[in-house]
Amino acid sequence: MGGAAYWTREIRKADGRSPKEGAVKRLDRLRGVLRGVDPVVATRAWREVGDALQQITDRYSR
Q1: Nearest to 47 by CA among 58, 60, 34, 61
Q2: What is the dihedral sign for C-alpha 8, 9, 12, 18?
Q3: pLDDT tens across 11-27, in order?
Q4: CB pairs under 8 A, 24+ apart, for 26-34?
Q5: In which band, very low, low, confident or very high, does the pLDDT at 61 lie, cut at 50, 70 and 90?
Q6: pLDDT at 42 over 60
Q7: How many helices (H) and strands (E) are present in the chain, helices listed first?
Q8: 8: closest CA among 22, 34, 36?
Q9: What dihedral do alpha carbons 45, 37, 20, 18 form, nearest 10°?
Q10: Which DSSP symbol is given to 38?
Q11: What is the rounded distance in angstroms from the CA atom of residue 29 to the CA atom of residue 46?
Q12: End-to-end CA distance of the chain, in Å?
């Protein structure tokens, strides 16, 4: 079973159960990818993800 096919299938299944589960699977995938890169790059990526999630939270909490 290939890595890309595994994640695609798992994310699709999680999306079928709920949007939140799909988002959690996507973050799990991102965590796995960022584990192998330079810590500075990983920190910047997590900061950008956090900023994007905060914007989404702000938009839907109004």
Answers
A1: 34
A2: negative
A3: 999 999 998 899 899 99
A4: none
A5: confident
A6: yes
A7: 3, 0
A8: 22
A9: 140
A10: -
A11: 13
A12: 43
- Above 60 in pLDDT, residue 52? yes
The structural domains of the chain, with segments of one domain joined by +, span 3-60
The three-state secondary structure class of 37 is: coil
10 Å CB burial of residue 23 (0-12, 13-18, 19+) is middle
For the record, the structure tokens of 8 come out as 């695609």
Going from the C-alpha of 61 to that of each of 19, 53, 54, 56, 57, the distances in angstroms are 17, 12, 10, 9, 6
Structural element, H or E, at residue 52: helix 39-60
Q: Is 62 exposed, middle or buried (0-12, 13-18, 19+ CB in 10 A)?
A: exposed
